[in-house]
């Protein structure tokens, strides 16, 4: 891996924050120079909670890039989608500020993991969806899914959207923390999605996030 990757999920509360932190930790252990970024954090005041969770999982303190706000360029106080949070805070989301921050991180680190808010179709502004921004920046996507009921539907819809927009899927992370309590559903979801990944995105990687790994998380599990 090298470059900027956008971490998205099939839905909100699917485990993107933990998945991003765990992946960053694994890359650090491989000797990679890696940083995570939360370009738009809502429901916070001064510090992006998700960045704090990333650093905790990675086992490192807040970095200089964190102190410079390069990893958290836009923070809104209201816990909602970015377009609504910005409206309620009475200011516009600055896309240029986000792009510049990501570029600065990419110049300093070998790998930048950019964690989005919610799923691919979440509005960043009134006129721009998250997937539009990903397409504009030509970022490959790391998609987080799970074994809970409904995940097959949401994952296939995300696959279809990525194909429609011509966006590369780097990997699909199956997050076991959200497995259905029904083992039949959880196991079938895993097997089905693993098979569909090979068919729909044969070059993409399959990854699994075990429940043991997620024990390192805080209460945040976006």
From TrEMBL:
Catalytic activity: (7R,8S)-8-amino-7-(carboxyamino)nonanoate + ATP = (4R,5S)-dethiobiotin + ADP + phosphate + H(+); (7R,8S)-7,8-diammoniononanoate + CO2 + ATP = (4R,5S)-dethiobiotin + ADP + phosphate + 3 H(+)
Gene Ontology annotations of biological process type: biotin biosynthetic process
Organism in which the protein naturally occurs: Morococcus cerebrosus
Name this protein carries in UniProt: ATP-dependent dethiobiotin synthetase BioD
Gene symbol of the encoding locus: bioD
EC numbers on record: 6.3.3.3
Cellular component terms per the entry's GO annotation: cytosol
InterPro entries hit by this protein: DTB_synth_BioD, P-loop_NTPase
Active site location: 38
GO MF term list: ATP binding; dethiobiotin synthase activity; magnesium ion binding; protein homodimerization activity
Protein's pathway: Cofactor biosynthesis; biotin biosynthesis; biotin from 7,8-diaminononanoate: step 1/2
């Amino acid at each position: 891996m090298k470059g900027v990757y956008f971490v998205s999920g099939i839905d909100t509360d699917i485990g993107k924050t933990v998945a991003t932190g765990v992946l960053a930790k694994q890359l650090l252990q491989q000797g990679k120079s890696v940083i995570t970024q939360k370009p738009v954090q809502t429901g916070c005041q001064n510090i992006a909670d998700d960045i704090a969770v990333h650093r905790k999982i990675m086992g490192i303190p807040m970095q200089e890039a964190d102190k410079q706000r390069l990893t958290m360029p836009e923070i809104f106080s209201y816990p909602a989608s970015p377009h609504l949070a910005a409206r309620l805070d009475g200011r516009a989301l600055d896309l240029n500020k986000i792009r510049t921050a990501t570029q600065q991180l990419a110049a300093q680190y070998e790998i930048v993991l950019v964690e989005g808010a919610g799923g691919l179709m979440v509005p960043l502004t009134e006129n721009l969806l998250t997937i539009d921004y990903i397409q504009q920046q030509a970022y490959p996507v790391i998609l987080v899914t799970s074994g809970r009921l409904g995940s097959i539907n949401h994952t296939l819809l995300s696959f279809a959207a990525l194909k429609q927009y011509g966006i590369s899927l780097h990997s699909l992370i199956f997050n076991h923390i959200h497995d259905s309590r029904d083992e039949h559903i959880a196991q079938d979801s895993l097997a089905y999605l693993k098979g569909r990944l090979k068919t729909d995105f044969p070059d993409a990687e399959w990854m699994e996030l075990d429940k043991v790994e997620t024990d390192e998380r805080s209460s945040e599990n976006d």
